[in-house]
Amino acid sequence: MNREYRDIPGTYVMDGQHCRKGYHLNMFCMSLNKAENRDEFRKDEAAYLEKFKLSDEQKKAVLERDWLGMLRLGGNIYYTFKLAIFDGRSMQFVGGAMSDVTEEEFRQMMIAGGRPIEGNRSKKEQEQSNG
Amino acid sequence: MAKIVTGIGSSHVPSVGAVIDNNKEQDPYWKPLFDGYQPARDWIQDNMPDVAIVVYNDHASAFGLNLIPTFTLGVADEFPPADEGYGPRKVPTAVGDPDLAWHLAESLILDEFDMTIANEMSVDHGCTVPLSIMFDKPEQWPCKIIPLCVNVIQYPPPTGKRCFDLGKAIRKAVEAYDKDIKVAIFGTGGMSHQLQGERAGLVNAEFDQSFLDRLTTDPVGLTKIQHVEYMREAGSEGIELVMWLIMRGAMGDDASETYKFYHVPASNTGAGLIVLEDGSQK
């Protein structure tokens, strides 16, 4: 199987391997679609997480709102964003958190045209230009 | 006989829905986007279809990872807006067209496109935001809606070519339907955007504008774009653009561009809108 997409920098492709790793994490996130589950999670986050088969690392990433960590542990942004919605956070906040800038800096980057494609296509290309 | 007369390509950014729901269209940040939408909104009022087939993707709303159908056709009487985590959008319940939808499901499956059939399905912003973009805030949507949900979250989504071919099969099926109705088809999602990871915020306006141009000048060439190229050039979530190719395949070879608009940014994306008309309509 061609996995050429693994050369794309800063990108966690939701392939089968990623899905297996993050299945329970993502399904926990999806459970927050239901108002009664949101209420229960709000009352005691750690206790609610016990209902799902998350690894300790995944639980920690959820409780600490480690947005990039969740992706590395199998999370998918459409699912982890359910947690951001729960927190009242915007996609720009989460985008900033994952790329290590503030929400306002991220917003300004978008207004200026977004993150440029030049220099962001390929890990190989980045390594070569960094010598 | 039924006919596909209009193709709409549109982004389905959730915050655009929130802006419409909260009457913020004239805010300085959003005004340029809505100014760009207005000509298409005016046009559709004079060219209202009887039914719109809306090709979109669900975002962990109606479908989770427990079951991941590639193509799902909604055959229900109605499709309520989904709760995506902040309560359902206050938009009308979409009224379906079960008669045409079942005709499509049967025709497509016998034409070797193995559709999943949904008798119950809520629709999230992927479906409702393009309706709001085109129809604004009516009490009821002005036409019947057939949702066609495509998996683009779990890799791999269907290829661009498969999507284009499905569009062609949809056209054939609609033309074999015995009621004299006008059908529009929406291809939604994109354009370039990456929501995840350290590369979040990627926008590639050059890619997007070329994609918009090639919808009329070189649609077959667009079907050759591979998944890795979408993800690399248009961002990991830019792969949603394969859904526009279902719309394009459903339009005739001689479809022409009536209106096109592109704007950066809408939230974290490059936002596009295109109106195509069937060649025989002109």
> Biggest interface and its residues per chain?
A-B, 55 and 45 residues
Strand content of chain A: under 5%
Q: Indicate the overall shape of chain A.
A: globular
Mean pLDDT value of chain B? 97
The DSSP helix count of chain A reads 9
Poorly predicted residue ranges of chain A: none
Q: Name the helix and strand elements of chain B from N-terminus to C-terminus, one letter apiece.
A: EHHEEEEHEHEHEHHHHEE
Low-pLDDT segments, ≥5 res of chain B: none
Radius of gyration of chain B, taken over Cα atoms and rounded to an integer in Å: 17 Å
Give the CA-CA distance, first to last residue of chain B: 18 Å
Helix content of chain A: 55-70%
User: Major sheet of chain A, described briefly?
Assistant: none
Per DSSP, the total helix count of chain B is 9
Number of strands of chain A: 0
SS class of chain A: mainly alpha
Helix content of chain B: 25-40%
The largest β sheet of chain B comes out as: 8 strands, mixed
Description:
The complex is a heterodimer of chains A (131) and B (282). Chain A has helices at 16-31, 35-43, 45-49, 56-63, 67-72, 77-87, 91-98, 103-111, 123-129. The longest helix of chain A has 16 residues, at 16-31. By secondary structure, chain A is mainly alpha-helical. Helix content of chain A is 60%, strand content 0%. Chain B is an alpha/beta fold. In chain B, 35% of the residues lie in helices and 21% in strands. Chain B has helices at residues 14-21, 31-46, 98-110, 125-135, 160-175, 205-217, 219-222, 227-234, 242-250, and strands at 3-10, 51-56, 71-74, 78-79, 94-95, 116-118, 144-150, 182-188, 256-266, 269-277. In chain B, the strands form 2 sheets. An 8-stranded mixed beta sheet of chain B has the order 6-3-7-2-8-1-10-9, sandwiched between helices. In chain B, helix 1 (14-21) crosses helix 4 (125-135) and helix 3 (98-110) packs across helix 5 (160-175). Chain B is globular, with a radius of gyration of 17 Å. The interface between A and B is large, with 55 and 45 residues.
